[in-house]
Design goal:
The structure is a homodimer of 331-residue chains. Chain A has 331 residues and is α/β, with parallel strands linked by helices. The first copy, chain A, folds into three domains: 7-50, no CATH class; 64-162 and 299-321, Rossmann fold (3-Layer(aba) Sandwich), CATH 3.40.50.2300; 164-296, Rossmann fold (3-Layer(aba) Sandwich). Chain A has helices spanning 7-14, 18-24, 33-46, 52-59, 77-90, 106-115, 164-178, 193-208, 224-237, 252-265, 299-311; strands at 64-69, 94-99, 120-124, 145-148, 159-162, 183-188, 215-219, 246-249, 275-277, 294-296, 319-321, 324-326. In chain A, strand 8 (246-249), helix 10 and strand 9 (275-277) form a beta-alpha-beta unit. The longest helix of chain A is centred in the middle third of the chain and has 16 residues, at 193-208. In chain A, 49% of the residues are buried. The interface between A and B is large, with 65 and 65 residues. Chain A binds a DNA duplex (16 and 16 nucleotides) through helix 2 and helix 4.
DNA sequence: TTGTAGGCGTTATCAC
DNA sequence: GTGATAACGCCTACAA
């Protein structure tokens, strides 16, 4: 059976009151050195350490942050999670990773996060409509929320993301300079607004170059396989002469799947017959097997910002940072 | 300010005692239907839901499981995390993802997990020596621990993993049948026992085939880049005639990095000049760009087992499940 | 510097 | 079926 020593027990062993024990474990509390030593010694002997659960109940601070994730197929999530957990831990915050799926939806997760008194909720690459919240109002009951690596659909919920407008401008500028004139854009279908927003913006950039009409490819999910299927469907339907000459994909994992099909199944050369561009700059896209031209999100800045907002060192507001274009051989 | 309604407030609003409110939210409690309705109505109005923090303090059950991870470079971690969180959530358990690194080591994390009263700790792909525990004894104070996807170094801590003995036998059998005779094995250096154990077992299998001596390559970490460096170092030092003819890597990500170097920098054909085998069967290894022969861990069984042990539906004991060989073109 | 009351929001258990 | 008392282990405030 699990049985932890309590402050009371330590107090008895040390011959002081339990409040003195508490003080010994409270940085900056006024306590005599002699008492502190006695307490620490007794605590050591009893293997005592404060019960953070009880502390949280009393202080209303859990030092836990929920991170909602609904897409585990993009390898890019992993390094971001690594950095995020590290920074949060450096601030004394632990990360509760919550898998949003069919059986456990946003509302469910949010109610849970509320009941557990998490200090904050991060929507990492996921979002929901304002209506989803129903009657529950932000600011009362619900923990502060933030959207990471995506735009926010919910008024009052700040989004910390890469500046996609700047990114797409830079990408299109680059592609135009390279001489590409028949662009296509592949989205992962799942979400409406974000993906469609990006696609629309991509199209706008081309329009400013005098090029109207961006071919639209739609993958079923965000995975290499889905990217492959979408590329296959497109190439099967389009005769060689009428095809796009550059395909921008919403993220790298789609791009790699598409590239597989382009090269292996249709024998096309990348970038000569069809150029491919991704987004995220995942490690495997950078190797010689793909040499994928991509765009790197300013992950570090984004995480610094969101952690600062959670700790209160920084004002909570929507903000977008510029990333950097990664030029390789695929486009 | 966050302010949640309490059972007491609901009680006043509903004109009952707070214990009746609690009963209304306790499945299977004896309460009159009329009272329950009154309570639920009042709760609805006040937006009340039970405070799980207080409940945990009183019951000594947090419904939270800590998952320790110290390597975020292997993309294979992501789908496993997805399945693990989903299964845990299905059992009403949330996952606290803890990043073990220089600034936050196992001991630190374990003390924290203890203080927060987590129901269990999963060491996912990571482990430490028994000595690390110091004086703290298992079974008293510390939450129950499990090692996932790796062997356990700690007596009393069960490991749930893929049966590497069976796996390596099958792999070597396959390679031998294919005609390979000069094997090499690449480990990620970091950990001693597990990696070295695998390498030793790999060597044993070959010895049974009458082949002594397995070339040993050592990567600095588990990443494509580290795998590439290790392969580069080896190939640079070994003249063509004396080289191994098959390279088994401890995981896919090392294998992909190695394959990049083998093909692009040294112009060798895979598998003709040098065959490559990985472990984990990550999505990107399966595409035409690599066609990596690999070995798939029985993730689902492993997770079912560990979740069963945590919930107590299953006896806690070390167990290894056989996986399945994935034959592709790289070997 | 130290001790005391009272409270945080539940649950367990017993009396009515 | 319902109410009440005593925990759970800590923290904040105030008093000594």
């Amino acid at each position: 059976m699990r049985k932890r020593a309590t402050a009371k027990e330590v107090a008895e062993a040390a011959g002081v009151s339990k409040w003195t024990v508490i003080r010994a474990f409270t940085p900056g509390a006024s306590i005599a050195d002699a008492s502190r030593q006695k307490v620490l010694q007794a605590a050591e002997a009893l293997n005592y350490s404060p019960n953070l659960l009880a502390r949280s109940l009393a202080t209303n601070i859990t030092h836990q942050v929920a991170v909602f994730v609904d897409d585990f197929t993009n390898p890019h999530k992993l390094p971001v999670l690594e950095m995020l957990t590290e920074r949060l831990q450096a601030e004394g915050l632990l990360t509760v990773l919550i898998n949003i799926n069919r059986h456990f939806d946003h509302v469910h997760a949010l109610i849970n996060a509320d009941q557990r008194q998490f200090d904050a909720v991060i929507l990492f690459g996921t979002a929901f409509r304002e209506e989803t919240l129903g009657d529950r109002r932000l600011g009362r009951g619900l923990p502060p929320m933030f959207v990471l690596a995506r735009d926010s659909q919910i008024p009052g919920v700040p989004a910390i993301a890469c500046d996609t407008e700047v990114a797409l401008n830079e990408i299109v500028e680059y592609l135009f300079d390279k001489g590409y004139r028949r662009p296509g854009f592949m989205t992962g279908a799942r979400t409406l607004s974000t993906a469609l927003g990006r696609r629309r913006h991509f199209a706008n950039c081309w329009r400013q170059k005098g090029i109207d009409g961006v071919m639209e490819l739609t993958a079923e999910r965000y995975s290499a396989q889905a990217g492959a299927e979408a590329a296959r469907a497109y190439l099967s339907d389009s005769p060689p002469g009428s095809r796009i000459d550059v395909l921008m994909c919403e993220n790298d994992i789609l791009a790699l799947g598409a590239m597989d099909v382009v090269r292996s199944e249709f024998g096309l050369r990348v970038p000569h017959d069809l150029a491919v561009v991704g987004f995220d700059n995942i490690e495997l896209g950078g190797g010689p097997a793909y040499g994928l031209t991509s765009y790197e999100q300013p992950t570090e800045k984004m995480i610094d910002a969101i952690v600062g907002m959670i700790t209160g060192e920084r004002a909570s507001e929507t903000i977008a940072f510029p990333g950097s274009m990664i030029r390789r051989l695929s486009a």
